[in-house]
Design goal:
With 165 residues, the chain is α+β, with helices and mostly antiparallel strands. 33% of the residues lie in helices and 16% in strands. The chain has 2 domains: 44 residues, no CATH class; 84 residues, Alpha-Beta Plaits (2-Layer Sandwich).
Length: 165
């Protein structure tokens, strides 16, 4: 069950953790909790499934990674877990996950490669295809054409009060 302090904590983390050496301490200072209490509450919320995950949102383009490709594969469902584990072991693969196939979109295994240039990404993809024996599976390579705003989950909309004058 969510307590009022949990809701307050969620409101403080939904805009992201502060970039500092002790982000949980900083969040604790903002909502009158100790660093330990912040960590314990977040751990409990995660264990309860109320927080799926805490992660970093990297702004790839600002770091010089301008060639970002989502590779989608059509593989037998029986091989998804095995291939997903293999693909995700490569250091240049930043995401790897399954999605259900659709009649108009037959792909069910997705992976993301971020690279500084298109040639590097394609070379890494060739390495991946060879090492994981993916040559016989249909795929599409979808290079990003624009950067969308990346953000975490919204747990609570800020409350606005209207001033009457």
């Amino acid at each position: 069950m969510l307590e009022a302090r949990d809701l307050e904590l969620l409101e403080h983390i939904q805009q992201g953790l502060p970039v500092c050496s002790r982000p949980y301490l900083e969040i604790g200072l903002r909502c009158s909790m100790s660093e330990t209490e912040v960590i314990q509450r977040l751990t409990r919320l995660k264990q309860q499934g109320l927080i799926k995950r805490l992660g970093v949102i990297v702004k790839h383009r600002q770091l010089g990674y301008h060639a970002n490709a989502m590779i989608v594969w059509n593989v037998p469902d029986s091989l998804i877990k095995q291939l997903g584990r293999m693909i995700s072991q490569f250091p240049f693969v930043t995401l790897c996950y399954q999605r259900p196939q659709q009649p108009e979109w037959p792909y069910n295994l997705y992976c993301m490669i971020h690279g500084k240039d298109k040639a590097t990404v394609l070379k890494q993809l060739d390495q991946l295809i060879e090492a994981c024996s993916l040559i016989s599976f249909d795929k599409e390579i979808l290079f990003s054409r624009q950067c969308f705003k990346q953000r975490g989950a919204i747990y609570k909309q800020p409350t606005h009060s209207l001033a009457h004058g």
